[in-house]
Amino acid sequence: QLQFVESGGGLVQPGGSLRLSCAASGFTLDYYGIGWFRQAPGKEREGVSCIYMSGITTTYADSVKGRFTISRDNAKNTVYLQMNSLKPEDTAVYYCAALKYYCSEDVSRYNYWGQGTQVTVSS
Predict the structure, then answer these.
(1) Per-residue confidence (pLDDT) for residue 27, from 0 to 100
(2) Per-residue pLDDT tens over the stretch 91-116
(3) Are 24 and 73 in contact (CB under 8 A)?
(4) Which of 77, 2, 1, 64 has the alpha carbon at shortest distance from 36?
């Protein structure tokens, strides 16, 4: 069965940090761009960051640039999202998903969505 499992979410105070993990099972991530997305209550799912299959090229939403860092470890079949200087507006369920070979801003193009991990930023 092809799937992602996200982990690492939780409750953190503003200014704090979390590291999310996205572990794939049933397929290898080597030939996929992997995106992180988030969805807050009452809002549409939005792209946060993406890392190309090379592991060199990355993209970030303007709202997280300079605060979030995406990385991948193909040997562990896992992608990470390091989130620093968290803000209350970062509160959402975070998901990862795969797109063969590339990254895209079009959320509908991605496959193999995980179940998500909740991130809550609150004092």
Answers:
(1) 85
(2) 999 999 999 999 998 999 998 888 99
(3) no
(4) 64
Whose tokens are 């079009």? That residue is: 106
Query: Which residue stretches of the chain have pLDDT < 50?
Result: none
Query: Would you say 89 and 74 are in contact if contact means Cβ atoms under 8 Å apart?
Result: no
Residue 123, amino acid? S
**How many Cβ atoms from other residues are within 10 Å of residue 63's Cβ?**
13
Q: How far apart are CA 2 and CA 57, in angstroms?
A: 25
Residue whose entry in the numeric block shows the structure tokens 């982990």: 7
Residue linked to tokens 């990470």: 80
How many Å separate Cα 41 from the centre of its chain?
17
